[in-house]
Amino acid sequence: MLTASRTIGFFAATLCSLWILPACAASAASDATDDVAAPARHPLISETPSAFQWSLHLDSEAVSDRDGGLRRGTVSDTVAHAAMAMDTQPLGLWAGGRFAASALHIRSGEPSRNYVGSLQAVSNIEAEPATRLFQLWYRQQFDWSESQLKAGLIDMNQDFMAVDSAGMLLNGSFGVMPTLSADVLASIYPEPGFGIEAAAVRGRWQFQLGLFQPDPTDRGSLFQHGQLLIGEVAYERMAGEESWGHYKFGVWQYRQTDPDLVHFPRDDAGIYGIVDQTLLRHGARELAVFLQGGASPDAANPVPYYVGAGLQLQAPFHARPRDLFAAGVAHAHIREDDAAAETVYELSYLIHVYRFASLQPDLQYVVHPGGQTDINDALVAIVRLHLEFD
Length: 390
Description:
By secondary structure, this protein is mainly beta. It is 8% helix and 49% strand. It has one domain (49-389): Beta Barrel (Porin).
């Protein structure tokens, strides 16, 4: 069994090795934003209109299976994410238009597949190594109707299934729920496909509709073999001028006729719901909780049901107003013979090192990795370095 001293030693050694890197990058990021460093799934570009914006984010992490799972070992994941955006009105053109593009370079040891054996990815940046165009879209906002249209290569998780208070947790299930990501091909990290989105706001209500190609890896096929259709309605709870909660409900339908996609359903559907609630604000300190759940009960789906919950606390210590603490649990029902449900417990702490850098130690305990009952529960330690250059 894993001893406490070995786990503490792993964190200490990795932190010491990563701590020196921000100092090396200081001169290159002297004009970086003062915002708290955000996890990789958050947008890289500000929504503030500007003639031209650019951003480069680097996430590099050590992931160690300390006990259980398929085998013990440590691997690294690194993602470089470059993005740019141009807004039409500051350029002297029409109002409300934005062009955006981004690219990824991924190097990954794929710890979930090679070491942990879990269905829910222990890291939201692990993926097959690749260098690719990630997003490329145009969005038009219509101020007179509080609506917008967006088309191009789109990561749908930026607009659908988004949970702000789950944003710093590293397990992939706190992004897109596995009742969608594990059952069908979705337009998400690491390879979004072509999609069209429409959104409208009516008071505190927001309505969104998205249409995405059924195979994002075949960007030339577009909608020739079907589509993924998703709709979401959200209500924002306000207290004065401040937002205190978001409540979301969504439905999706997947249809495809591609003979190459024999391992995916021809016709599938699901629903999901999200509660994202702020409980406390006092100075820099803010406490928020979330609850999310999804269902796609078709008999062919490997994950018919999922539920997740957790909390995020900003400024857990008064002397560290920009630090964040988060905890979460993700429970995925796995439909296979003799399979058990997979449950992940996660604790994470984001250390704001400098205005462009953060370190994030993370600990996950995976019960029944991949639904397998013949391997031991896994204890996974992660330390992630996040750098931002704007």
